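Fold it.
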Amino acid sequence: MESLIRKILNYFFYRFFNFKKRIFTLLYRFSFADFGSNSVINDRIELRCPKNIFIGKKTVINYGCLLNAWGAKIRIGSFVHLSPEVMVNTGGLNLDDDFIRRRPLYKDVIIEDGVWLASRVVVNPGVRIGEGSVVGAGAVVTRDIPKYSFCAGVPARVIRSLK
């Protein structure tokens, strides 16, 4: 009897979870400049200037992610996985100016196909993350990452090749 009740509860829980995913995906789908087929948003995310965000097909964006495309574009390829609380920023400050006259600096961010960004990764403006790369949890990506590489750390450094 207990296992039957457990099976029934599991069935309804997973039905609700899939329903919740579908609702969030539908709510956010029309905010983006482009939102690929079969892409999923698992829960609440924070968007800044979503008209500058392009997402490929079968991409997963988990809860707590911040996509800040104010002033430049974010291009996320197909089959990309953004783990919880990933931050992607396109804006910063121009540090070459005197501190009184510092102006905002905006650069595009490109995340190519098949990339996995683990939890709490920060991607800074002007970065390109190469196809098939994996970025370890908590890394701060300040430079371009080559294709098929694993990187981690603050700032993120290539640890090894994945090919």
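Residues 2-161 form a domain with the UDP N-Acetylglucosamine Acyltransferase; domain 1 fold (CATH 2.160.10.10).
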